[in-house]
């Protein structure tokens, strides 16, 4: 046993130490190349992009490699040939021209006031005014930006390259503060509009962000951008494909498998279920989250790394404020145009969730030009549900009432214990219930049951109406009807009279029917009634 442990430790030192350096948190292409860190070669795609067009926009989730992509472009346009030795770019590029590169990075700041943006602008502009020896008393950021472009072009004799990382972060940081968000929008719109007016002096412009804000937003003055966010040719320009995983990280996977008692095949399957599944075009294969993969290999441990570095606070707050039905989050059919742009004034939750990486394309209906969306993988699904639980159901998230207690009750068909526990939960969290009471109750129930690993349907359509909540276990089908300020008996009677149990009679499972009444005065459950339809056959396989 101890000899085996020693052998494993030696392999950790060999594979994870001397042979493979993972660039955790490193977004500088120069540092990665000079430091000997592993780099998945995307330079062929960069060459194709830069040699076939001029103005581009790319939307990708956070920590998906956007900043590294921008840094790689900066090194390329700066003529840093030595950094590309051994990469595809070395054989593709013949000229290696050094262009003046203006790189604005809007990450790394909390935009709590408009002064934060002014400070960021000033830092960016001062850097290049010093570089090109520009003396000006001008204070307006857009005017200074325009002047820098003109001077850089004139003094170098080469057209300017403009790279902007996380172009919309100040707006996203304030999505629940409309007044401040509008201030940021106006400032950014005026600043970015400079790019369109300086076409004669610009060689290339590339903007990245998490979301694409449209409809008279900050792009209204910059409408010449080629949006490649859903372009099949560039679907894998960020992230890691299955082929790249196997060709670049074979030894890492073998080490990970050994450390976790898995076969290589099992390890690949677990990596896929945890971190794969992003689709930025319906015809392309799944993409792995690079941040999660690298952290997994570095620690030799499966965890929810993406969520450990940040939670979708703004998105969760936005969903709750809008009284959004959380069951509509996944498995939605949405129009293509819904995913490609967001109205900055009132962006559709489904659009934000897709662009932020919490949903991805799972299928495409060519007839109706619609996409079917769902969570990309287990890391995102579990992490997002946990984030929702902290806002909708803090008692569950904090462990005061364990999800596992509810699971045991449901699996045993112990309705009395389940309902008593559920009533206690809502009694202690009534202050969290706001807006549409029935919808909020439905959302909390849905989150709770999904955290249990149950497939939950809300507003389930039957021939005689919609069932509020349906889910099943190995032995039981649960049908729940909710009422507000009526009675549990009325809710149960509706289930009986409309035959909500009929679609499930062939399941071979016992059907448990629950009528629940929710009080708007006390903001908790004030009654429940139970009915049972016995199983009518053997359980389905």
Overview of the structural elements:
- With 541 residues, the chain is of the alpha/beta class.
- The chain folds into four domains: 2-17 and 240-307, no CATH class; 42-234, Rossmann fold; 313-376, no CATH class; 393-533, Trna Endonuclease, Chain: A, domain 1 (3-Layer(aba) Sandwich), CATH 3.40.1350.
- The protein contains 23 helices and 15 strands.
- The chain has helices spanning 2-19, 29-34, 43-52, 66-77, 88-92, 114-131, 141-156, 169-172, 178-197, 242-248, 250-259, 264-275, 290-299, 305-308, 313-321, 336-340, 349-355, 378-392, 394-397, 403-412, 415-428, 437-451, 488-497, and strands at 55-59, 101-105, 160-165, 202-209, 213-214, 226-227, 332-335, 342-343, 360-365, 370-374, 457-462, 465-472, 476-484, 510-519, 524-533.
- Strands 2-3-4-1-6 form a five-stranded parallel beta sheet. Strands 11-12-13-14-15 form a five-stranded mixed beta sheet, sandwiched between helices.
- A hairpin with a 3-residue loop joins strand 12 and strand 13.
- The two termini are 41 Å apart.
- Residues 1-18 have low confidence and may be disordered.
Strand order of the largest sheet: 2-3-4-1-6
Strand-pairing-aware structural class:
alpha/beta
- Sequence stretches where pLDDT stays below 50 over 5 or more residues: 1-18
Question: How many angstroms separate the termini?
Answer: 41 Å
Q: Would you state the CATH class of the largest domain?
A: Alpha Beta
| Overall helicity | 40-55%
> What overall geometry do the principal axes of the alpha carbons give?
elongated
Strand fraction: 15-25%
* Rounded Rg: 27 Å
The CATH topology of the largest domain corresponds to Rossmann fold
Which CATH architecture of the largest domain is right?
A: 3-Layer(aba) Sandwich
Beta strand count: 15
Number of domains: 4
Mean model confidence by pLDDT: 85
């Amino acid at each position: 046993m101890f000899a085996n442990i020693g052998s494993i430790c030696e392999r950790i030192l060999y594979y994870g130490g001397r042979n493979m350096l993972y660039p955790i948190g490193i977004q500088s292409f120069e540092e990665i190349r000079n430091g000997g860190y592993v780099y998945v070669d995307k330079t062929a795609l960069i060459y194709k992009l830069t040699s076939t067009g001029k103005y581009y926009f790319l939307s990708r989730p956070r920590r998906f490699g956007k900043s590294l992509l921008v840094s790689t472009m900066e090194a390329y346009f700066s003529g840093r040939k030595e950094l590309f030795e051994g990469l595809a770019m070395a054989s593709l590029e013949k000229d290696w021209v050094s262009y003046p590169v203006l790189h604005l990075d809007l990450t790394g700041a909390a935009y709590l006031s408009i002064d934060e943006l002014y400070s960021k602008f000033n830092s960016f502009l001062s850097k290049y005014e010093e570089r090109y020896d520009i003396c000006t008393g001008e204070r307006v950021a857009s005017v200074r930006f325009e002047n820098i472009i003109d001077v850089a072009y004139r003094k170098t004799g080469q057209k300017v390259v403009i790279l902007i990382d996380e172009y919309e972060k100040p707006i996203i940081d304030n999505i629940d503060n409309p007044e401040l968000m509008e201030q940021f929008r106006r400032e950014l719109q005026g600043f970015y509009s400079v790019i369109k007016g300086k076409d004669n002096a610009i060689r290339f412009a590339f903007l990245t962000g998490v979301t694409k804000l449209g409809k008279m937003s900050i792009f209204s003055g910059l409408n010449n951008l080629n949006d490649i966010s859903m372009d099949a040719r560039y679907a894998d320009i960020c992230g890691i494909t299955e082929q790249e995983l196997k060709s670049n990280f074979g030894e890492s996977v073998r080490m990970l498998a050994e450390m976790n008692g898995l076969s290589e095949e099992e390890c690949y399957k677990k990596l896929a279920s945890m971190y794969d599944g992003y689709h930025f075009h319906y015809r392309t294969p799944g993409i792995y989250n690079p941040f999660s993969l690298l952290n997994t290999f570095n620690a030799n441990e499966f965890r929810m790394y993406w969520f450990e570095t940040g939670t979708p606070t703004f998105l969760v707050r936005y969903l709750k404020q809008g009284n959004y039905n959380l069951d509509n989050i996944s498995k939605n059919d949405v129009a293509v145009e819904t995913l490609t742009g967001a109205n900055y004034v009132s962006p559709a939750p489904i659009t934000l969730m897709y662009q932020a990486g919490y949903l991805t394309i799972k299928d495409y209906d060519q007839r109706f030009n619609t996409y079917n969306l769902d969570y990309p993988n287990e890391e995102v699904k579990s992490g997002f549900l946990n984030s929702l639980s902290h806002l909708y159901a803090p008692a569950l998230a904090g462990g005061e009432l364990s999800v596992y207690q509810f699971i045991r009750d449901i699996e045993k068909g112990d309705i009395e214990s389940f309902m008593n526990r559920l009533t206690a939960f809502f009694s202690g969290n009534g202050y969290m219930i706001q807006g549409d009471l029935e919808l909020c109750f439905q959302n909390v129930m849905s989150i709770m049951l999904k955290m249990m690993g149950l497939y939950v349907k809300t507003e389930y359509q039957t021939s005689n109406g919609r069932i509020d909540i349906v889910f099943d276990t190995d032995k039981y089908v649960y049908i729940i009807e909710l009422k507000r300020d009526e009675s549990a008996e009325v809710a149960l009677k509706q289930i009986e009279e409309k035959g909500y149990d009929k679609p499930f009679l062939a399941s071979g499972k016992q059907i448990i029917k629950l009528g629940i009444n929710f009080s708007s005065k006390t903001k908790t459950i004030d009654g429940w009634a139970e009915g049972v339809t016995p199983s009518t056959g053997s359980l389905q396989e």
